[in-house]
UniProtKB/TrEMBL annotation:
Its EC number is 3.2.1.46. The gene is GALC. It comes from the Eukaryota. This is Galactocerebrosidase. Coiled coil: none annotated.
Amino acid sequence: MAAPASAPSCPFPSWRQPDPPPWAPESCDPHNGRAPTAGFPATPRESHDGRRGFGGPRRGAPTAVRAAGARRRVRAGRLRRAGPGVRRRRGSQRRRDGTEPSHMHYALDENFFRGYEWWLMKEAKKRNPNIILMGLPWSFPGWIGKGFNWPYVNLQLTAYYIMTWIVGAKHYHDLDIDYIGIWNERSFDINYIKVLRRMLNYQGLDRVKIIASDNLWEPISASMLLDSELLKVIDVIGAHYPGTHTVKDAKLTKKKLWSSEDFSTLNSDVGAGCLGRILNQNYVNGYMTATIAWNLVASYYEQLPYGRCGLMTAQEPWSGHYVVESPIWVSAHTTQFTQPGWYYLKTVGHLEKGGSYVALTDGLGNLTIIVETMSEIPELQVWYTKLGKPSERYLFKQLDSLWLLDSSSTFTLELQEDEIFTLTTLTVGSKGSYPLPPKSEPFPQIYEDDFDVDYPFFSEAPNFADQTGVFEYFTNIEDPGEHRFTLRQVLNQRPITWAADAYNTISIIGDYKWSNLTVRCDVYIETPEKGGVFIAGRVNKGGILIRSARGIFFWIFANGTYRVTGDLAGWVIYALGRVDVTAKKWYTLTLIIKGRLSSGMLNGKTVWKNIPVSFPKNGWAAIGTHSFEFAQFDNFHVEATR
């Protein structure tokens, strides 16, 4: 049994560390040239913890989730047999592609119905009750840091914040969180990990396991070897993008080793091939018994960082269009035929001319091989994927069974380039079906939202993608008139950030290809003197790049001034002056961009006109605030042409 020496290259994200990590490219290296070991001993080697878990989608995913209920059910149906784990990202701060709301915006605030991920976890549980749930903070609310951009100022307070989320998940949604992390790809604090363990135990959450540190193998592994208490309280060492390899210290801890974030690749056939290799080789090379793919669904604007880096694509809630991409079926080769608790057999390895094979068993007579042969089994179910040219392409196709009836119980399997085989005793495999999705359509050229939603299904408005800050539906109890229901920016303190975040809040919407557009919105500044809000067009960046976003931004401030800038940070100033504006009063802002000229109006009266703007040529519409402050928006309207 042999595979060809060539395979598609696997692109890897360049943002992982300030300096490009030397190990990153190896994560998709399919060929190490080592000959396989013959035979399968009956004794297991390592427990299988769920070979591929779901990576929680980033902020922006609500643009897909918030479509009509039938569309939600269709997309959720793709989770049915997709894998054994869902990871929930937390923190009211920007991830790679946007923000997700915290359950505690403020110290005395608790709300366990914000965001889409409660819904996502419950839908996953409906389809697979045995699915594993994990939580990982990417950031923390600002009040945790007591004025510092650091979550470890008060260890008890941070542990309490995490504990309340776990308790709330059970109390309000009947969700049992199985694992909790420390801080995504940032520093860990040894004492905090110990305090967190004690806090969880005190609350009767002994079953919740700790995974650390969701970054590199070191220094967490060495720290555990030097600290017996730390070694005891950490259950899993999780590394991100480990390149299929681990380090000596990690293995010496005798703890479970996970690739706790991996993949991050365009969901083309090249990306699918990458995923297929790391699912096998993370164990073959590095003894990692779980691989969590980031991200689950590419349901954010495609021009944001890591566009289409999900296992499937659903980025048009306005049309309902979605695509079940090839990585879904590549992952099914493993996840449909194994479960958490299965064991890897000792004989795993590389094929002589490239590729790899693993074998797993539940200890009850069932066996799954990806890809390999086995003796003394009369029949094996065969599932097949061929990536590449459309005319030669197959995705998760069931082939004729293999009957092993001769005395040697052997068979020959010839592998060609870009193929995956699963051989298993299980008969549960099913590709399933889904209705033909609606055809793809661009974002509507005329779009408006008055935010008049009394009991919203989600806390955020559809199609808006918060990049910093959190914009939520809001009810003005004291305003029975036109602005009773609004969209409100609800963070009044900059979060403890995971990456270089903007100092303003901003939510984008629309079509990145828009060039000529009119944006109109009613705005309400809540902070006297220092408060400010803006509307914008041609915004050209988002996600981890939002801090350097360019565009045309029309600002008004509570001190009675206005400003027109060419960037979110406010360094490029086109115009400024005075206007009759104060806090606690509604105003209507209008921004008109046509060709190389732009104009702005306040309450229907022109404030500035025909200011030259040559860059950028196109981008999204947006709303936002000058700082992390309370402000409201209503009657949003955009009319655009490309």
